[in-house]
Amino acid sequence: MADPEGPGACGEEAERDEESPVSDPEPGASADADMELLRTLLSRTLGLGGDKPERVLDELSLDGVSRFLRSERCKNIICMVGAGISTSAGIPDFRSPGTGLYANLQSYDLPYPEAIFEISFFKQNPEPFFALARELYPGQFKPTVCHYFMRLLQDKGLLLRCYTQNIDTLERVAGLDPERLVEAHGTFFTSHCLRPSCRQPYSLSWMKERIFSSLVPKCEKCQGLVKPDIVFFGESLPSRFFTLLQSDFQKVDLLIIMGTSLQVQPFASLVSRVPVNTPRLLINKEKTGQSDALMSLMGFGCGMDFDSEKAYRDVAWLGDCDSGCLALAELLGWKEELEELVRREHAAIDAGGGNEDREDPEKCRGHKDKEDLGKCQEDKDKAQRDPKKPQGGSEEPLQSVRGTPQK
After folding, report:
1. pLDDT of residue 39
2. Quick one: how far is CA 349 from the chain centroid?
3. Which residues does residue 209 pair with via DSSP β-bridges, in sequence order?
4. Please, are residues 9 and 241 in contact by the beta-carbon 8 Å criterion?
5. Catalytic residue among 147, 185, 192, 346, which?
6. Do the bridges between strand 77-81 and strand 314-318 make them parallel or antiparallel, or are there none, so unpaired?
């Protein structure tokens, strides 16, 4: 299931967004991250060293992004994604009126909707969460066009990292290398006993067996409660999140943000960690992540800027994430390759009867025999030799398949 974006570094006053039940980061990591962000803001505001804003894109549009992506200047891409990339797979987001998950939890007899993802409530009453997990369990859904677009970026040697707020494991199913993935709000992929003296790990298949047997998972070693490694309200974010962002966001050449409202910290602050001249593309149903008006007036605006006279690097493509990725893929000459990848991978999932075997990083996804496996490796080798050359399409940018790129 797609995770809601959860509260962040501001604690209980932070808005609980539609995409993730997470909590404050570890105190030490949070303080370091906050200080680094403050230093960056002061440096840029006061003009103390560093690069000066420079327009890198020849045009603030999806066409301009596509030309930059195919240039020699773009070698490391980071994707930041939220629940919006998984809704077309049939996984609801959390706060959409009427259809969001929080609007449909009446049968669980909760004191308030968010309680189902609070660690203190879970420890006292875990049954509602596991009943919900039975309905939305990973393995019942297929990755979307957006997931496979990121897979193409990886196969072409362009994906530095994917930072995801989602807990549905669909990035893994789509074939993203776990080393290229930062599951900022945790994952269903693994589980652990909650007792600090035990912490026995358990696999996805072990957890699934118990959930679908309507059993509250108990540790085989100590009989403590076992919880999937998703981050609940009241828990810390994974240390991997804080460790990798320190170096990743200094290397990035292009930031692509998809399907997230960018309202919850510390995830939302990542958009401000890229170098001052790094282009940022938002693919989302609405513009988000823009600087707060008061902070901008004080000279501390560090969010996205799509429309002001000072806009020089941010582009918003408004619409659903799959359509946005198809539009960008067409401009890159990758559309046919992307559509074929989706078709082949979905067929392999259907033939396999489930997603569990698709999450094995040692397996080549979508290929069952030696001939196909060899073809897969040949394709990967070719892509790595010439990652900029579009596969299965014209080298000239094509017309966007849907919508008008937004400045």
Report:
1. 57
2. 21
3. none
4. no
5. 185
6. unpaired
Element (H, E) at 33: helix 27-46
Return the closest-CA partner of residue 156 out of 333, 355, 366, 362. 333
Q: Is 346 a catalytic residue?
A: no
State which of 40-44, 97-101, 122-126 shows the largest mean pLDDT. Answer: 122-126
Residue 187 sits at φ, ψ, to 5 deg, of -160, 155
Name the band, by pLDDT with cuts 50, 70 and 90, for residue 19: very low
Q: Is 175 exposed, middle or buried (0-12, 13-18, 19+ CB in 10 A)?
A: buried
Q: Report phi then psi at 256, rounded to 5.
A: -115, 120
190: helix, strand or coil: strand
Classified as helix, coil or strand, 193 is: strand
Amino acid symbol at 322? D
Tokens of 18: 């539609």
Question: Nearest 5°: phi and psi at 189?
Answer: -60, -35
Query: What single-letter DSSP state applies at residue 277?
Result: T
Share of the chain above pLDDT 70, in %: 67
Locate 39 and state its tokens: 């230093």
DSSP run (H or E) holding 355:
none
In the predicted structure, residue 401 carries a pLDDT above the cut 60: no
Q: Which two tokens stand for residue 183?
A: 């599951």
Res. 177: pLDDT tops 70: yes
Q: Which of 326, 327, 294, 291 is nearest to 306 (CA)?
A: 291
Q: What is the structure's pLDDT at 335?
A: 98
Q: How far is CA 144 from the centre of its chain?
A: 13
* pLDDT score, position 15: 35
